Amino acid sequence: MESPAVTFTLAYVVFAVCFVFPPDEVRSAGLTVQSLLSAWLGSEDAAFVQYHLRRSTGTLLAHSLLPLGYYLGMCFAAPEKHLCFFYLASKGWKTFFFFAVLFPAVTSALAYYWSRKGWNNHPLARTLAVHALPQSGWRAVASSINTEFRRIDKFATGTPGARVIVTDTWVIKVTTYCLHVAQQQDIHLTVTDSRQHELTPDSNMPVQFLTIRVASVNPFVKAFDIRLNSTEYGELREKLRAPISNAANVVIHQSLSDLFLETFTSLVEINQTYPVPSTQAHCFYSCVIKEETNYTVGV
After folding, report:
1. Which of 1, 51, 244, 297 could form a disulfide with 44 if both were Cys (CB 3.0 to 4.6 A apart)?
2. Three-state DSSP class for 257?
């Protein structure tokens, strides 16, 4: 029989993974940073940039508390280790506790620094400032993004931790801790990779995922990759101003019929050749000729 410490450790690892990379079931239960801090974060539709300034900061703080939560849980799961009394704990656990307290302390100080002067010190604010005109600042860029995000004609896809948003002016990739932003007029897009999955959690059909490299002519904008389902490729291309080059010569399945033909062809190619006896071949050709001769009905 496993000890309570081992059981708690396994359960906490599962909890930590689901908390950092929440599946759909966890999101529907509201056990995410966005749900737990919804009162502080505000509305994404009302103020997209300000929402993600707070969300990225709150996410970093919440995740930094996970090691400390494990230590506190082990105080009750393994009382024989005397973790509740720091001076009685072993050297290894003392080191772990030191870093478990250090992580949230550093992230709290960092979050306080980011929030100073109206979030001017936040990495996202510095990212947006790169796109600002000389006589304006990052807030003008944020206002433009907020306005375009509220429009219903934007392209949006992906999970909350890896979303892709394309508006009339901006290409945005939302990740767990940061945002990548590029201006449409400055970018070059290239399909760099394709992955095909036989089954997905949302569908029993095989799907193809494309990786597209977004590179900007602005030297201060770092290139980034976006990932999307091949069936959404056409909608994405309609929203973009710049063409998408296919440097890797990837065959893109934009519809279910394209994917069926590709799968059917691959299965036919791996089948062995069946030698047809001369009598069967003669019968086959006779049937075909007869069908063609008797075909008198038009549809």
Report:
1. 51
2. helix
Mean pLDDT on 25-52: 91
The amino acid that residue 197 corresponds to is H
Q: What DSSP element (H or E) covers 246?
A: none
The C-alpha atoms of residue 215 and residue 187 are separated, in whole angstroms, by: 5
According to the model, what pLDDT value does residue 274 have? 61
Comparing C-alpha atoms, which of 244, 193, 236 is closest to residue 215?
244
Cα–Cα distance for residue pair 125/49, rounded to 1 Å: 9
Give residue 298's pLDDT band: very low, low, confident or very high (50, 70, 90).
very low
Residue 24, token pair as written in the block? 């759909």
Q: What is the DSSP string of 26-86?
A: HHHTT-SHHHHTHHHH--TTT-HHHHHHHHHHHHHHHHHTHHHHHHHHHHHH-GGG-TTSG
Q: What is the DSSP letter of 90?
A: -
Reduce the DSSP state of residue 100 to 3 states and report it.
helix
Q: Provide CB contacts within 8 A for 108, sequence distance 6+.
A: 61
- From first CA to last CA, the distance across the chain in angstroms is 72
Rg (CA), the chain: 28
Size (the chain), residues:
299
Phi, psi at 135, each rounded to 5°: -90, 5
**Nearest one of 152, 179, 188 to 167, comparing CA atoms:** 152
Question: 199 exposed, middle or buried (CB, 10 Å; 0-12, 13-18, 19+)?
Answer: exposed
Is residue 278 predicted with pLDDT exceeding 90?
Answer: no
| Angle at 122 (CA atoms; ends 117, 127), nearest 5 degrees | 120
Instruction: Identify whether the C-beta of residue 263 lies closer than 8 Å to the C-beta of residue 206.
Output: yes
CA distance 202 to 213: 26
